[in-house]
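During the second year of the project, the team shifted from modelling isolated chains to modelling whole assemblies. The rationale, set out in the original proposal, was that interfaces cannot be judged from single-chain predictions alone. As a representative example for this report, we include one of the complexes processed in the last quarter. Its constituent sequences, exactly as entered into the pipeline, are reproduced here:
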Amino acid sequence: MRLELTKKTDLAFQALEVLSRATDQRVAGPALAAELEITTQYLPHVMAPLTRAGWVTSSSGPKGGYVVTTNLDAVSLLDLIEAVEGEFDDSRCLHLGPRHDNDHHCALHDPWMRARTALLDELDTDSLADIIAPSI
Amino acid sequence: MRLELTQRSDLGLQALHVIARSPQQIVSGPEIASAINVSAPYLGTIMGPLVRAGWVRSFTGPTGGYRLTAMLSERSVLDLVEAMEGEVDRDSCMHSDPMQEVNEPCALHDPWTRARNALLDTLAKTMLTDVLELDETTDPPI
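Output from the structure prediction step:
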């Protein structure tokens, strides 16, 4: 069973970390890409979910770049994962085939839902500001 | 993000339930297949992992079938999921990038590991007899 995040979520987190330490100053795309050790071509893919979520704004031009526009105390790791990887599908417990009858709950439904809730609750506990280690 | 079991885990559990409930010790393949509503060839792919994990033993021949050899009261939902879907990788937090040779621990390693453990602990604490509402008398005499 795979229970893993993708690299994209980790990169998005690192980008927020870099931007949050830049305190209100724009970080130019090339500088941010260099910090993340990714290409400038890939950077927009990493940043798109963050701008879509309204956490970061980007501007173009010589003084352009990215800036954090939200308080990371109010964003949880769950929010970040859902922004980057899509929402956790909350209605189904199983990856079911076409034979599936919606009224039928599999026997594993309840324990799986409890386990899933435990994971989601844990992800919702800490804010990104908590997770970002102090820079000193 | 997808966080789901596959149907294999559920079918594996249903197959165990059919054998545990049956008055016979050995239940034939066609009987199990029809009870859990799968084709006979597909049943083989459900029973294979259970046989390999030592939960059931298969007997060939006209009176053959499957016999339960595990105590369901001692097996958890996590055991079942791992038997059916493969072991949970507890070390890596990220889907590793084949382009990268070195996998540094990612910044999200600790919070993700905590969250994953919360899920796994819950699955490990739930015994199959609780899920199936069976009592321990359905365990095979060993």
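The longest helix of chain B spans residues 109-125. Chain B touches chain A at residues 1-7, 9-10, 13-14, 17, 37, 77, 81-82, 85-89, 92-95, 97, 106-108, 111-112, 114-116, 118-123, 126, 131-132 (CB under 8 Å).
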